[in-house]
Amino acid sequence: MHTTSGEEVIRRLRREGWVLHHVKGSHHQFKHPEKPGRITVPHPKRDLPVGTLRSIFRQAGWERRQACVTRW
Description:
Blueprint: H1 6-15, E1 19-24, E2 27-31, E3 38-42, H2 50-60, H3 66-69
Antiparallel strand pairs: 1-2, 2-3
């Protein structure tokens, strides 16, 4: 899994229907109208740690190999 910035993740979440629920400090929380739960994305301008990125992928229902294939 390559490094990805929070900004790129946020762009993809919005494209897939996730809506910004609220912001607290540098953490943006997204909610989907049809999917359960919320996803928190920290530091929009910085690269995300691999563990955080993995967690976001799992919560959004994305496969890890999509990171290399899909342009965000």
